[in-house]
Design a protein that fits this description.
The structure holds two protein chains of two kinds. Chain A has helices at residues 118-121, 313-316; strands at residues 17-19, 50-52, 59-61, 63-69, 77-83, 88-95, 98-103, 111-117, 138-140, 145-150, 165-170, 178-184, 190-194, 199-203, 223-226, 234-235, 252-257, 263-267, 270-275, 279-282, 287-290, 297-302, 319-323, 337-342, 354-358, 379-384, 403-406, 409-413, 419-423, 431-437, 449-455, 458-463, 467-473. By secondary structure, chain A is mostly beta strands. The radius of gyration of chain A is 21 Å and the shape is globular. Chain B is elongated. Chain B has 14 helices and twelve strands. Classes of the chains: A mainly beta, B alpha/beta.
């Protein structure tokens, strides 16, 4: 494998300095008088100061570093919205510091245009200016809305005392995002738009003891919120995806919608898919019926046997997030595979891995009937970890985390192990084809990659420490490149 | 969900005021204990029809506001001042509404609550617009008040659209496959049924809609719509009596699915017309104290004071006056603009249905429509439709 220049695009940038990016947004006129933050006629605005941290310490292969932007903090997640009126995309990130918005008029060099700080997100009773956590950030690209999901552990709260829910932010004018409302939801770790963002599925966190939750639950399942009308959101007092771990209701961590519209729900006890629209056969109720966001129809799924013999009861079955490729991959049938992150925050040698499972044998409601006495498990085809692989560290936080897929290349965040590119053309043998890791050094903020996004030919990394790294994958893109990258509710 | 606990606590009489933060107000108290010594007065206006057909409901409204004032004073008043209530007859017509509001303004009220009839409430709202007097409209339907767009006016009732949402959300809990939406042909019912139909369609469910002739609905024809559609959920928008007869006809025809009627059927006429068929039927209706367990202690206190059960106008006015007092407390001032500024961001303020919050257009973010069910000839609470 040929090593490519690491910081080709960054040579013009000073190290860890505050730079006024004058290029993109600064050329636009200021917002016209009288226009509101939701006024679509507004066009352009100022560019804010940002910090760019050049990773001179990075170890990488088949990856070129292009830029780094800091915005308001490090981030758990990103998302993107295309604005036809401007002719380019904007990037949104949420992290402990709040929300940051960048213009991608120059996709290689995001220009910070606005922010909502954590202090501005505080609610009465909060004791800290610390947003948490907003993983798997979701947006409504049509209505130009961003949803910041608030974990009860944010703003100084605890699982038992904190307030969970969602901030609905109007970003019609990305230079002036406006908080429409904070809507309390008895769930709040990640959220995903469902059915063209007319509903929101909010999930997590782990075992809560939160008032109102069924005491038999080990974690928070899916809560469904009607957001047809964002002025009057309504959360159903009935949860979805119960009894997910051999009959026990447990922690749901992520919802990711595939290209066919099936919502894949990941968490403790595996990954299970649901139809949320249309008429489908319900293998649990044994009848055809209409699927809705609040009463979805089970499709397929389950979990696999633990891959770490020295694991823990929790992490053995903690499927953090998943991706269901609807295409044929290798010798496997169309839609047969499931790519899964098993998060396990332990030693690097035993940290959570990337897994590939087959859905065969799970289409008749088997997972919904699974019990401790008669457990149903998917066939595990392969699993992969950076441990012992080229470019890896031996200490630090090393678990698998969020990923996106382009063709047959999985781009995944691995905390301190950085960003890893895996070729899954042979699903039984995932192979590393590139990596980018940033150890700490003088003037260099060490990386902790949370989530990696293919987007319009580039790769953007939401990093808990560094902010956002902009990368280019220089390896060969295996498989057919995707027009639309799907994660959360798909790139639109 | 965690606020549900707060709502339950809010029913515990004086404790409710602690939950709403009222006890935190600065007030002077006698060193020797007993009732706090209050310095000065603060006057809130109450607008209600005190004569005519709705005089009884109007008095209920006034009594609810008076009870809130008394309890506020027991807890130290507002900004250390004694709460007084000034009452004006707002009648039900635009002219009387305007006259009542003008009368209250002349009494230098800090804010107003009340408003039962829509026409009178809208006229009163317009009358106080220039002065920016805070006005929490407690009982009148919200639609026209919101359309009026008076910045200082906050309706405490839901809109027709929100009633439709309540119906659709309740359907969601029952998981229907085929929905029949029927109405009595009146413009109001047609609007409501249209809104419900659109939302049900948007969720991909099969829906058939039928409007009856406004004069003398052909119930047989409506029932045949249900049969032909093989509906498993029927929504009725319209008057109570034909709604009850329709339900009876449906049951006689063998219909075994769910039946949900609009708030117009919150009347004894519905059950009288339906007879035994009324059992298990649902009503989407505005919350009232008789159906809210959280309001039981408050209702008992009301009964102690007035020797009768409270109506929903009393409950609404009670909450309205408390909300107004909370806004004054948060503002630390009685200037209208400051009070109005605080009304959309009341902190930890709950009513008997949940958190009170207003959207940017001043509609209730979380409305007060509930679902009641007929059981053994009585209405019981099926759902508050709230998770806040």
């Amino acid at each position: 494998m040929k090593t490519k220049p690491l910081v080709a695009g960054a040579v013009a940038l000073a190290t860890a300095v505050v730079v006024q990016l004058g290029g993109a947004g600064a050329a636009f006129a200021a917002e016209p008088p009288g226009s509101s933050p939701s006024d679509n006629s507004a066009h352009g605005g100022a560019v804010l100061d940002d910090i760019h941290n050049v990773p001179t310490t990075a170890v990488a292969k088949n990856v070129t570093f292009i830029d780094n932007v800091r915005g308001v903090s490090g981030y758990s997640a990103l998302n993107f919205i295309k604005y036809d009126k401007y002719g380019y995309d904007f990037m949104f990130a949420n992290g402990t510091g709040g929300l940051a918005v960048w213009s991608l008029e120059d996709p290689q060099h995001p220009a910070l245009v606005s922010k909502i700080t954590a202090a501005e997100l505080r609610l009465p009773g909060d004791t800290q200016d610390r947003f948490w956590e907003g993983e798997n950030m979701t947006v409504d690209p049509k209505r130009k809305l961003v949803f910041l999901i608030r974990d009860p552990r944010g703003f100084g709260g605890t699982v038992r005392t904190g307030q969970s829910g969602v901030y609905i932010v109007d970003v019609k004018n990305p230079w002036k995002p406006e908080i429409v409302t904070f809507h309390p939801i008895p769930a709040g770790h990640t959220s995903t738009c469902i059915n063209d963002c007319k509903y929101l599925w909010s999930v997590g966190p782990a075992n809560t003891g939160t008032p109102g939750h069924d005491p038999s639950w080990n974690g928070v399942p899916v809560r469904v919120t009607d957001i047809h009308d964002i002025k009057h959101p309504y959360t159903f007092d009935r949860a979805v995806d119960l009894d997910r771990l051999d009959g026990v209701t447990d922690y749901v961590h992520s919802v990711d919608v595939d290209k066919d519209g099936v919502a894949w729900v990941s968490g403790e006890g595996g990954v299970r898919g649901y139809w949320t629209e249309g008429n489908h056969y319900d293998p649990v109720q044994k009848r055809n019926r209409v699927a809705t966001a609040y009463d979805p129809v089970p499709y397929a799924g389950g979990t696999v046997t633990p891959i770490n013999p020295a694991g823990t009861a929790f992490y053995d079955f903690f499927d953090h997030n998943a991706y269901h490729p609807t295409e044929k991959v290798g010798s496997f049938d169309k839609g047969e595979l499931l790519y899964i992150t098993n998060e396990n925050v332990t030693s690097c040698a035993r940290a959570g891995e990337f897994k590939i499972a087959s859905l065969k044998g799970s289409y008749d409601g088997e997972s919904w009937r699974s019990t401790p006495e008669n457990p149903f498990r998917l066939e595990l085809l392969s699993h992969w970890s950076p441990w012992g692989k080229e470019g890896s560290a031996t200490t630090g936080s090393c678990s698998a985390h969020w990923f996106t897929v382009n063709g047959n290349i999985v781009a995944q965040g691995w905390y301190g192990q950085g960003t890893r590119f895996l070729d899954v053309s042979d699903p039984r043998n995932p192979t590393q084809v590139g990596y980018f890791r940033v150890p700490s050094g003088q003037g260099v903020t060490g990386g902790s990659a949370s989530a990696v996004y293919w987007h319009n030919g580039l790769v953007y990394v939401a990093d808990y420490n560094r902010g956002v790294d902009v990368l280019r994958f220089d390896g060969e893109l295996a498989g057919a490149p995707d027009d639309k990258i799907c994660w959360n509710s798909c790139d639109k | 969900m965690r606020r549900r606990g707060a709502v339950r606590v809010a029913a515990l009489g004086a404790t409710a005021l602690v939950v709403s933060g009222l006890l935190a107000a600065c007030f002077a108290s006698d060193e020797g204990g007993g009732a706090p010594r209050l310095r000065g007065e603060i006057t809130f206006g109450v607008l209600a029809p005190l004569s005519g057909d709705l005089a009884e409901r109007g008095q209920d409204l006034v009594d609810g506001a008076q009870l809130a004032a008394a309890e506020l004073n027991d807890q130290g008043g507002v900004l250390g001042r004694q709460v007084k209530v000034a009452v004006e007859d707002g009648g039900c017509a635009p002219a009387t509404g305007e006259q009542g509001a003008t009368g209250l303004a002349a009494k230098k009220v800090v804010g107003m609550v009340g408003g039962l009839c829509e026409d009178a409430a809208v006229a009163a709202a317009n009358a106080v617009a220039a002065a920016g007097t805070p006005f929490l409209v407690s009982s009148a339907r919200a639609d026209r008040l919101i359309e009026a767009g008076v910045p200082s006016v906050f309706p405490l009732e839901g809109t027709v659209y929100q009633e439709a949402l309540a119906a659709v959300h309740w359907m969601g809990y029952r998981s229907p496959q085929r929905v029949a939406v029927l109405d009595d042909g009146s413009p109001a019912a047609q609007r409501l049924s249209g809104l419900v139909t659109d939302r049900v369609k948007a969720d991909g469910l099969t829906v058939s809609r039928q409007s009856a002739e406004a004069k003398g609905p052909d119930l047989a024809k409506l029932a045949s719509t249900v049969t032909a559609a093989r509906a498993d959920f029927v929504y009725w928008a319209g008057a109570a009596e034909p709604g009850g007869r329709l339900l009876s006809a449906l049951r006689q025809a063998g219909y075994a699915g769910h039946f949900l009627a609009s708030s117009e059927s919150d009347s004894p006429e519905f059950q009288q017309a339906a007879g035994a068929a009324a059992d298990d039927a649902y009503l989407a209706m505005a919350a009232s104290p008789r159906l809210l367990p959280a309001a039981a202690d408050w209702a008992a206190r009301f009964k102690d004071r007035y020797r009768r059960e409270p109506g929903r106008d009393a409950m609404q006015a009670y909450d309205a006056l408390r909300a107004l007092a909370q806004a004054v407390r948060q503002a630390g001032d009685t200037a209208p603009a400051k009070v109005v500024d605080n009304l959309p961001r009341l902190e930890n303020f709950t009513t008997f249905t949940g958190t009170l919050r207003f959207a940017a257009d001043h509609s209730l973010t979380y409305d007060n429509f509930i679902i009641a069910q007929v059981r053994g000839g009585k209405l019981i609470l099926a759902s508050k439709l709230r998770t806040d």
